[in-house]
């Protein structure tokens, strides 16, 4: 009896402990938390995919690369979602992150590979290689005692050899004028600039070319605006053509420099993400002057946010062709294998409440062919051929009608100039003939370029002579270009391209755009429109 009485006393306590432990364990199990079922235990279905992979790994008749199979399985799952949810393998994560961060760790040279020889095609001013004495035209023979000259080596392999942690050193042997020179280069942070060019198109009118939206884009943009303002800028051409986007934060911060305070720039909203508004917060560096934004079918995502906010608030004119049409927000999720899942979590909406995301209901193949379809439909040549996917009428601040559902339609349409590109020119542009010729000519005629101190001087004074033009044609012929098909109509385009490439050799992208914009019809139209605004 005494034992029974003790059991009667402790049994309820024991049941309570077991029940509490069961509830605790049930709460901790993902299956129980994510289900409306009252069942505490059930088999984890997530293991099925891993089970299949293990069976393949240990039992399949042939040896398999399980990592490749896993990647294909992930990509297969994502193919049923939107076109912008993607998996980034571990080997590619660093390169993707560097582009968004706006820098990488290396020695600061541009190079090309011809005849199994690595040539220094450009040296970043103020970078590690410039400090070590490397000059354009040097040939890299050895890297850390590894002979690379005369061997089948890829650009990717060269990058792996030359890049490394900031502050680390790399030993190189260069060939210059027939002499071998040993150089030790201390690696550093090399900027991946967002602003390709910032200069005055003409008195009062500034030009900024922005190639992406990275962590450094805002600071670069503000510095460019301040520089041009000191030079007398009262109106601005912001070139976003072929800018495929980047960080949302960079786009909204730059928009804050162009729009008045407390203006809605964009808002995002998704199933698991409540609406979040992004508004201007402070006085901007260029809120009042006439503004033109250049766009085309390659302008996407963050570019469309910036251009769309400017259009919806009637802040400036959008000039060019209809933009890409990407209105989805991705968030990166780091995976245990070192890869990254960039998953679409929300849509973004412009101040007029329109979404500019184009349809992907017909699958990724059709989505990827959209630009080709636009061209075939005639949209690149005629603004009236633009197909409006969303017929809902949205309104700007001043009551103008705008549309969503497939990119931003420009206020001023500029057709693609097909007359500029013959078959011969197209072949030249799709190969490295221009860049190879310019590099080889430059390193053997340095003295000819020494008098030019600025891109402005070069643009005004340098001339592609008939002799230089004939020399290029001869080089192109050796490069298997059908020179006989190059007509007199092609000559001005070729000369402009050559001059722009020489300017790039001297001053990188800043020089290139100062020359090439002189023949750019979209830039010329933007200047005219800004004059009307004034």
Automatic annotation (TrEMBL):
CDD domains: cpPDZ_CPP-like (cd06782), Peptidase_S41_CPP (cd07560)
Protein name (Swiss-Prot/TrEMBL): S41 family peptidase
Family: Belongs to the peptidase S41A family.
UniProt KW keywords: Hydrolase, Membrane, Protease, Serine protease, Transmembrane, Transmembrane helix
Highest taxon, organism lineage: Bacteria
Protease is among the record's keywords: yes
Domain PDZ: residue ranges: 93-163
Transmembrane segments: 7-26
